[in-house]
Write a structure and sequence with these properties.
Mean pLDDT: 92
Structural class: mainly alpha
Distance between the termini: 41 Å
Number of helices: 5
Number of strands: 0
Low-confidence stretches: none
Shape: globular
Order of helices and strands: HHHHH
Radius of gyration: 16 Å
Strand content: under 5%
């Protein structure tokens, strides 16, 4: 068995919530690049070219996001899936902004994260 097959087998044996989080996290990396990387990499190119490149990147997002939501929906409500996605989005977005887009880390990211922690608590508590 190859290392890739071993990793795939581990993921498939993982609990539903872990599989969902891993797939949504990977999906979100693609989503973040599709939505924002063109601002840095394609700023001097026509908007339609940036849109085409973004659509190409977004395909990989959807190839991970759709199965993630299908797996997650087997045990989570739609509200739980949505709040989980938003928490993952901020977790991926902050390092992207700081390390890839070279923008300063802001205290507002902490406040947003605390608000999302509250949302996660309230949506998962019952």
């Amino acid at each position: 068995m190859t290392p890739f097959q071993n990793a795939a087998a581990l993921v498939m044996d993982a609990p539903v919530i872990l599989r969902t989080v891993l797939l949504l996290s990977a999906s979100n990396v693609f989503m973040t690049f599709a939505w924002y990387a063109h601002l840095k990499n394609l700023a001097d190119r026509p908007w339609w070219l940036a849109a085409m490149v973004s659509w190409g990147i977004a395909l990989f997002e959807y190839l991970l996001q759709v199965p993630a939501n299908r797996i997650g929906a087997s045990q989570l409500s739609l509200a739980q899936l949505k709040i989980l996605q938003e928490a993952i989005t901020l977790t991926v977005f902050v390092p992207f902004v700081v390390f890839y887009m070279n923008q300063p880390l802001k205290l507002d990211y902490l406040w947003a994260a605390l608000c999302l922690c509250g949302a996660v608590y309230f949506i998962f508590r019952s």
